[in-house]
């Protein structure tokens, strides 16, 4: 028997809208920031500053500080923070903020594809046309018929989204039943941050131009982008049906594309624009299917988004 629907009120929807704006605009913020700092080094700095912000927040909210099982939290941190966040920033070094946002946000599509062999959740309903549209969109963006050597950023962004999906699958399969969102976020960020330190030392030069713009970008990522964002996300999940919460965050990559267009002058080309539209429609189809009560019971919702 389907669970009763949660009433939808104005404040949770406002929280979801603000969250989408924060996450969506952050793609422009990060793109601007890496002009003063190598991308992996910026990822490392933002993650550890986020840890500094999260600890007092968790104490204030009276959430547990004890580390979850290492067998669960360490792989989760490496997938979610080292992989997803690190590679998303790295992709921005080679590609535009808008295109990178769309490619990384293909995560829900990778999720339903991987859930078939790994969790036994077969594709059904609107998921089939969504996957087909996403594939067509990806082909349009990559343009394999006219290779121009600009695949690097797109490939890294795709891997970032795949690792994000993998972290969600790991969370669904191995997360303790009494897992606290804030506690899990803190510890996976710590272990993922350690992984980012290692990656940075091997790949990036340790040089930073501490300009006011860079400092502002770093603070944006740590305070509204992490602390406030997790509070808004937890509040929206508590008050809204999971399908509506997932549908609401769909605005984030669209805001990223529009913001990059207006502020950075990143005008999508013909095929690139077609590809973005195809992928966005595919994401909308997946999110729309999750609005159904039966789908919401088994929904895997992302955490730690940009």
UniProtKB/TrEMBL annotation:
Cell division recorded as keyword: no
Entry-linked Pfam families = EamA
Report keywords, A-Z. Answer: Membrane, Transmembrane, Transmembrane helix
Q: Which residues cross the membrane?
A: 40-60, 72-90, 102-119, 126-145, 151-170, 182-203, 209-232, 244-264, 270-288
Q: Where is the EamA domain?
A: 14-142, 152-287
Return the InterPro entries for the record: AA-Vitamin_Transporters, EamA_dom, EmrE-like
Topology relative to the lipid bilayer, per the entry, is:
Multi-pass membrane protein
Please state where this protein is localized: Membrane
Name the GO cellular-component terms.
Answer: membrane
Kindly list any coiled-coil regions of this protein.
none
Task: Give the family, as the similarity comment puts it.
Answer: Belongs to the EamA transporter family.
| Record protein name field | EamA domain-containing protein
Organism listed in the record: Acidithiobacillus thiooxidans
């Amino acid at each position: 028997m389907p669970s009763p629907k949660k009433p939808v009120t104005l404040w949770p929807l406002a929280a979801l809208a603000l969250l989408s704006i924060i996450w969506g605009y952050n793609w422009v913020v990060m793109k601007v920031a890496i002009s003063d700092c190598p991308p992996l080094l910026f990822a490392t700095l933002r993650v550890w500053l986020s840890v500094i912000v999260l600890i007092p927040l968790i104490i204030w909210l009276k959430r547990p500080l004890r580390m979850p099982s290492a067998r669960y939290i360490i792989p989760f941190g490496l997938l979610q923070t080292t992989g997803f966040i690190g590679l998303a920033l790295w992709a921005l070094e080679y590609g535009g903020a808008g295109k990178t946002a769309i490619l990384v946000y293909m995560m829900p599509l990778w999720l339903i594809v991987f859930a078939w062999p790994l969790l036994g959740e077969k594709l059904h309903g609107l998921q089939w046309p969504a996957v087909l549209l996403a594939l067509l969109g990806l082909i349009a963006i990559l343009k394999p018929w006219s290779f121009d050597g600009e695949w690097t950023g797109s490939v890294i962004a795709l891997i970032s989204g795949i690792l994000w999906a993998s972290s969600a699958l790991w969370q669904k399969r191995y997360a303790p039943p009494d897992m606290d969102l804030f506690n899990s976020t803190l510890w996976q960020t710590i272990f993922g941050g350690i992984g980012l330190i290692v990656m940075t030392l091997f790949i990036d030069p340790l040089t930073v131009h501490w300009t006011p713009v860079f400092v502002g970008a770093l603070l944006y990522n740590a305070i509204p982008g992490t602390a406030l964002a997790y509070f808004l996300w937890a509040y929206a999940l508590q008050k809204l049906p999971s399908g509506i919460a997932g549908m609401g965050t769909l605005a984030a990559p669209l805001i990223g594309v529009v913001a990059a267009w207006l502020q950075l002058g990143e005008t999508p080309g013909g095929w690139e624009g077609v590809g973005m539209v195809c992928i966005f429609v595919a994401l909308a189809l997946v999110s729309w299917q999750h609005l159904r009560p039966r789908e919401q019971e088994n929904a895997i919702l992302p955490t730690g988004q940009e």
